Amino acid sequence: MADSKYFLRQIAFFILLFSIFSPSSAHNKSTTTTTTTTTTPPSGCSCPCPCPSDSSPPSGSLPPPGSPPSSGSLPPSGSPPLSSGSPPPSGYPPLPSGSPPPSGYSPPSSSQFDFKSCFSRIFAFGDSYTDTGNAQLMGGFQPFISQIFSQFSSGQLPGYRLCNGRLVIDFLCDALSIPTLRPYADSSAEFSKGVNFAIAGSTTLSTDFFSQFISKGHSLMWNANPESCDTQINWFNKYIAEKGCKGINEEACRGEMANSLFWIGEMGGNDYARLYGSHVLHKLLITQAVGHVHKLLRVILDKGARFIVVQGLPPAGCLPLHLSFCPLKDRDQYGCSNIANSLIMAHNELLQAKLEELRRKYSNAMIIYADYWKAYQTILTNYKSYQFEQPFDVCCGAGGGPFNFELNSLCGSAGTSTCKDANKYINWDGIHLTEAMYKHVSDLFFHKDHCRPSFAELIMKKKQMMMGSST
Q1: Which of the following is catalytic: 128, 206, 324, 337?
Q2: CA-CA to 271 of 20 to 30 Å: which in 97, 253, 431, 455?
Q3: C-alpha distance from residue 260 to each of 116, 255, 263 (Å)
């Protein structure tokens, strides 16, 4: 514990030094005189994306704007990294039979399988892209958010979501014919079909780290101090001991976990949003964020989990939160922030490497990677074919500012309003996506093989296990 506190204090010390002496800090304080137009964040708020510096960033940080994109950056349409036509990475799990794929083998299509009744329980983890009510029940939001919840709440969709409707986890439940997952913080909920442990605004770095060592800045719609993702691990362990496996032995408990589907949603995105602007911590932050996902996976695998889906991060540089405050010259071929997305790419690459390590160690488990980056890119590149008219503008905003997004007038606050047809928008509030976008992402995950291995292969392996247990 003492070593941990010392380590955090050292991090804080370097942050303080960097914020005082770094060129990027000076850049933020200076008045822009070039022809490139930027939007100045409000007082007390750091640039949500990594602000460019006139000098070369330290080793391990992101390249300056205008430098050639690194390996793995957003490619031209039709050639995403690790596409279905690319050879599988080292450690890629074998076919369910355990034999090598025959010549010309292609993964089975999800349309060949009926997902219904394949899993009887789902356990979900993540942040606001997955949370169905935990943050609200814990008092984690600023008061104005309650206006959105009251406006869009529906008896058919219990809980609270930072969206105008369903999330990916809701579409997953629909596909598996499982009732909508109730948040763990709901003391009156019944969890026989699974639990949602995800907490909106949660970070991989500890709450103490943000409260003691990092300037609060702008907390967006959340309370200033975020909830640590470790809370979700603690909740899961408590659920297993008090409800999920109460009254049964360890072997039976492992059997229950082996028959459940574990969904690991977005984790780490909130850390990057809160700490953008500091080049010096990028490598450390990526290691910490991915390390937490790895820690969570070890916990559930050791409890007996065999079927796990792990989401990568979506390209945050395509969200108005980052686009509104970064220079216009910091744009990739899709109109997104190149610097912000470089950070996300590095996270996703390290995450996939860690998943390969776990596949080798837990050979009986099926761990698939849901490529949120590729799914988002697929839709953004051809957004009109998905019936979207606005690839960057937000549906719910203040009616002013770039992309209809203003940091001090977030969706739900005084003076904001919603668009007439949210189905035409990718972005709900500049930070989160619309139900229409989540629906298309879900379809790409479940039916269009934007998972590696495909979601169909996971279903096929689960059905084989079910058939084996019934003989």
Answers
A1: 128
A2: 455
A3: 13, 9, 10
Q: Where are the beta strands (DSSP E) in 237-279?
A: 261-264
Examine the residue annotation and report whether 110 is marked as an active-site residue of this protein.
Answer: no
**pLDDT-derived band at 113, boundaries 50, 70, 90:** low
Torsion of CA 244, 290, 320, 162, to 10 degrees: 10
- Residue the block writes with tokens 């050292």: 10
The one catalytic residue among 131, 429, 449, 450: 429
Q: What is the pLDDT of residues 157-199, one digit of tens each?
A: 889 999 999 999 999 999 999 999 999 999 999 999 999 999 9
Domain ranges within the chain, ordered by starting residue: 110-384+433-470
How wide is the angle at C-alpha 336 spanned by C-alphas 334 and 341, nearest 5°? 115
CATH topology of domain 110-384+433-470: Rossmann fold (3.40.50)
Residue 236 pLDDT > 80, yes or no? Answer: yes
Active site (annotated) includes residue 188? no
Q: Which of 282, 432, 440, 450 is catalytic?
A: 432
pTM listed for this prediction? 0.78
432 tagged catalytic: yes
In the numeric block, the tokens 């999920």 are attached to 244
Residues 6 or more apart whose Cβ sits within 8 Å of residue 165: 152, 157, 422, 434, 435, 438
Burial 444-458 (b: 16+ CB within 10 A, else e): bbbbbbbbbbbbbbb
